[in-house]
# Entry
Amino acid sequence: MTSKINTFSTILLSLICHCVFSQTIINTENMMRELDEKMSYSMGFKGDFNFGNIDLIQFSTAHQFAQSVDRSLFRLLLNYDYIEESNQTISSDFTGQFRYNYKIQKNSIFGFLQAQNLKSLRMNHRFTSGGGYRHNLWSKDSDYLDLSAGLFFEDELYDKDLVTQIQVYNWRYSFSSFSKYSFTENTFINLSVYYQIKTTNSEDYRLFVQPRLYYILPKFDIFLDLTYRFHSTPYIMLYRRDTSLELGVEFQLK
# Structure
């Protein structure tokens, strides 16, 4: 194979502030730093295992396969989250997304297909498809500020085969911003913001904010990741917001 394949392994040490598993918005930009090569593979993993007075198994893994061909960028993203406490499965959540970007200088047109099942949210499935346009407002060296706007369709099913079963079909507008700013040669921050609003009801919206602070060392990178999610009108009895804080180590094998 003539294309260089880069492998990135991420070990995450999780510090959870408050989590209610509102995982419907997935940030596809936090694994975008190293896609200059024709082909790349990146992987992230975090886990927590306790036995004795507390029997807890918790782990999650994320994978991204990316292929660049001329102006086209193809990405396949796969995530899996699992939590078991006292032999009871609390979460067994899978997410898969195929994403395509067509580059127009520093800008791009994009489309995506996504599938999820979220046991922790009592969501049997969530299928989304859509597209949009991403525009670069400012760039200097490796720093940048991008804005994007798009439209997507979502199909969500909760509590299948129960009296409380709920089927939801929505069209949503999507507005996002992505930025990177370097403080020093070895320290920078990435910020991703997603705002998704139902086309027929402006009071039904979802918000996702994720700043990620990096410190680069010769052999690996250290990052601190804060994630905030909010849904104004949950379709079943759930909290409207959740927040998580993660400390991670990322290293590259060539």
Summary: The radius of gyration is 19 Å. Residues 5-253 form a domain with the Porin fold (CATH 2.40.160.40). Confidence is low (pLDDT under 50) at residues 1-23. DSSP finds no helices and 13 strands in the chain.
